Amino acid sequence: MIPTLAARSAFRASARAQAVKYSFQPHVGRFAPENVIKWVPSLALWGAGAGAAVTLFLSGVPLFQTDVLKKLPVLKEYYEDKTPDSDKPF
User: Fold this and answer.
1) CB 1 within 8 A of CB 8
2) Do 65 and 80 contact (CB within 8 A), yes or no?
3) Which of 13, 21, 38, 64 is deepest in the core (most CB within 10 A)?
4) What confidence tens digit (pLDDT) does each residue in 8-62 have?
């Protein structure tokens, strides 16, 4: 029996596979730079949201005001106490 054209083309010779070149991929555990770079925008967005939430929720705490908010040039005047000493009860 002579194989048909379809049968012969199914088993035609293909191009030879290229040799694999191995190279070192720097990593820490399962984290490689290529994988970490994909997560940077998402982590930055969540970090900015968390920072804004912490600032909002702790803005009424006096220790947070003196240690953080009064040291920011934009917010310094907002949290600065301008009440004269004669009007303070203590």
Assistant:
1) no
2) no
3) 64
4) 666 666 666 678 888 888 889 888 998 889 999 999 999 999 999 999 999 889 8
Backbone angles phi, psi at 28, to 5 degrees: -125, 110
* Cα–Cα distance, 8 to 74 (Å, whole number): 78
* Predicted TM-score (pTM) of this structure: 0.56
Whether 63 maps to a domain, the answer reads yes
Whether 57 is covered by a domain: the verdict is: yes
- What is the domain extent for residue 55? 32-81
52 located within any domain: yes
DSSP of 29-76, one letter per residue? TTB-HHHHHHHHHHHHHHHHHHHHHHHHHHTT-HHHHHHTGGGSTTTH
Residue 23 placed within a domain: no
Q: Which amino acid is at 27?
A: H
